[in-house]
Every structure is written in C-alpha cells, then in structure tokens.
C-alpha cells in the first residue's frame, strides 16, 4: 500500500506552535511548598519526578540581573512533547539571546542534576556561545551511582561548567529571588539533610 499523509498532519501547525509556546515561557516564581518539597538535599527523593531550574542571566551591559533575566523552568510532560528543564532553558536562551559573540554569565539552581542527554546538549550549547560562563548549583545528584550519569557530569566539568551542591546561601538566594514567599522568612530546616554526602560524592565523581 502506498503511504498516504491524509489527516496525519491535520493539527501539526497548532501543536508545533503550542510546543514553542511551552518552551518559550519561564515561570516568574514558584510557591513555597513547591520549593520546600522539590529542593531539599536528599540522597533518595521518592515522589519528586519534576525538575525545577531557577536561572539568572547577566550580560556585560548589566552588573546585576533584572526581573527579565530571571525565571524558573520545569520539565514538561505532555502527550505530544517531553522536554527537560535544561532543554527548555536552552531553547528559550537561543530565542532571547541570539548573539553568539556577547559575554554572558549564566547561573542555574537545579532540583536535580542534568541527565547524560542534557549534559551533552549543554556542552554543544557552550560550543555555540564561546563567551558564556555557566555555573550549576544542584540540590541533588540524579542517579549518582550510574556511570553514564557520572560521565555526563564530568563532561560538563571538562567543558568549563562550575558544578556544586546547593548550600544554605544558595537556598536563601533562591528563596529571595525565585519563590513567591509573600514576606515569609527563609528557614533552612530539612533543606541540607544530605549536603555533606552529596558534596563529597560530587567531588569524587569529578575527580
């Protein structure tokens, strides 16, 4: 039988535009309960399948970030598209900052460290943006016992990415800048449970 495309592409334009809209728009802030649930330094975080990426972008024109250079991405899971938080950021950044020769200082605060696929894509991204420095502070290490995931982190390190486990200061920075706390004070309780182990494990992986 001959291939027939009839009805196969009926909603293509709508779905393609919808996907681009999903990838393009970061959230301004997340609510406090989301932050407290998804960001603690835990070794094994059951039920936490979502990954949040809080980002800030500094250019040589600004000494500090304004609100337009900050935001939060979350991994997207839809019937027609799956996109990790890191991939959402890379797509957004290429759209917002098309000039490859500018100087950029980018910081990520992640609830999970990047998977091997995202690590590869970040390395390729850094090859495009030669004057961009990227710092990644992650709350937890994703599959830290798996050699493939360890190799992904090493590739990021070798590409010049600063990697570290989120500390108390990092959590407070996120609370102040990425959480809709409505005036509630920052409390470190339970956020740093697994910090010592994760920090030592990350250094072991990178060494």
From TrEMBL:
Pfam families: APOBEC2. The keyword Hydrolase applies. It comes from the Eukaryota. The keyword Zinc applies. Belongs to the cytidine and deoxycytidylate deaminase family. This is CMP/dCMP-type deaminase domain-containing protein. CDD domains: cytidine_deaminase. Keywords: Hydrolase, Metal-binding, Zinc. Residues 30-156 form the CMP/dCMP-type deaminase domain. The gene is IARS1. Its cofactor is Zn(2+).
